[in-house]
Amino acid sequence: MPSRHDPQPQFEDERLSAAHRAALRSLDRVVEHTAEPTEPAVAREAVLEQLLAGNVLLLTGAGISTDSGIPDYRGPQGSLRRSRPMTFQEFQADPEARQRYWARGFVGTRLMGQARPNISHHIVADWQRRGLLSGIVTQNVDGLHAAAGATDVVALHGDMRSVMCLDCGNAEPRASFERRLEEVNPGYRESVTARVGELDVNADGDVSLDADTVARFHTVRCLVCGSDRLKPSVVYFGENVPAPTRERAEELKAASTSLLVVGSSLAVMSGYRFVLDAQKRGQHVSVINGGPGRADARVETLWRTQAAPALEELDAALRRAGR
Ligand SMILES: [Zn+2]
């Protein structure tokens, strides 16, 4: 489902081309309805029991941030229905793709920067403080769990608030990078945000801009090596989760006794694998999600509801139980 502004790239390198095609297949994966949800009252009791037992590994996805105004990818209003994100292979190979990305991001991050944690993020942070969770893993790159006070969050797909150089590996805080972009693009953001109501903002802070608007945007180079291949520290479609992040996730899996997924369709393998691994360990898996998901037919408890009302109900019940 390419965006109207994204030309299909041609890769000379066959390996790059294969990785790009694999990323597109992942993006195009349609999550079908495969299982009937658990009866809500039964589901609520099962998740409550899980939380009361403690040591729950929590995995969150876009559905926990939609109440903060960040659209998800695959939900009913999902941004994948309008445009697809750039794959890692496109970003890496094509300077024009990078210019398009940063022009859109330059406008989009400001919108994303206005996002605040919602009740779900606050409840999760509170559960962590109350010792109910063994860890928090998120597929989101919005930083909202940490903004709500959660600590040691494993951001599986990275963090929008940092920019890295693909050539020398230097990391630069997004804020410093943004200031540099502002210096070379005076008035640009204002000229675009005047039309912000008409723009589509995606889950990764991306907005759709026309070709002329992209063309007059200036990019900046790496402060250390001068490369123009700068990329947000987020895991793109077609890119692997970095090894240190995978290792932290593995440690958490091993240290947990059950898995609770909130707000994810688990369409992407890096999330789905949590379910497979938990089940290999014989652990109870619950999913709270507003729509169908890839693991629905496998999991013990499937609560088909939005994140916030479910977490509020659970939190009230936990407090009644003195937890
Ligand atoms: Zn560099």
Automatic annotation (TrEMBL):
<dbReference type="InterPro" id="IPR050134">
    <property type="entry name" value="NAD-dep_sirtuin_deacylases"/>
</dbReference>
<feature type="binding site">
    <location>
        <position position="225"/>
    </location>
    <ligand>
        <name>Zn(2+)</name>
    </ligand>
</feature>
<feature type="binding site">
    <location>
        <position position="168"/>
    </location>
    <ligand>
        <name>Zn(2+)</name>
    </ligand>
</feature>
<feature type="binding site">
    <location>
        <position position="222"/>
    </location>
    <ligand>
        <name>Zn(2+)</name>
    </ligand>
</feature>
<feature type="binding site">
    <location>
        <position position="165"/>
    </location>
    <ligand>
        <name>Zn(2+)</name>
    </ligand>
</feature>
<dbReference type="GO" id="GO:0017136">
    <property type="term" value="F:histone deacetylase activity, NAD-dependent"/>
</dbReference>
<protein>
    <recommendedName>
        <fullName>protein acetyllysine N-acetyltransferase</fullName>
        <ecNumber>2.3.1.286</ecNumber>
    </recommendedName>
</protein>
<dbReference type="InterPro" id="IPR029035">
    <property type="entry name" value="DHS-like_NAD/FAD-binding_dom"/>
</dbReference>
<keyword id="KW-0808">Transferase</keyword>
<dbReference type="InterPro" id="IPR026590">
    <property type="entry name" value="Ssirtuin_cat_dom"/>
</dbReference>
<dbReference type="GO" id="GO:0070403">
    <property type="term" value="F:NAD+ binding"/>
</dbReference>
<dbReference type="InterPro" id="IPR003000">
    <property type="entry name" value="Sirtuin"/>
</dbReference>
<keyword id="KW-0862">Zinc</keyword>
<keyword id="KW-0479">Metal-binding</keyword>
<dbReference type="GO" id="GO:0046872">
    <property type="term" value="F:metal ion binding"/>
</dbReference>
<feature type="domain" description="Deacetylase sirtuin-type">
    <location>
        <begin position="36"/>
        <end position="323"/>
    </location>
</feature>
<dbReference type="InterPro" id="IPR026591">
    <property type="entry name" value="Sirtuin_cat_small_dom_sf"/>
</dbReference>
<dbReference type="Pfam" id="PF02146">
    <property type="entry name" value="SIR2"/>
</dbReference>
<feature type="active site" description="Proton acceptor">
    <location>
        <position position="157"/>
    </location>
</feature>
<keyword id="KW-0520">NAD</keyword>
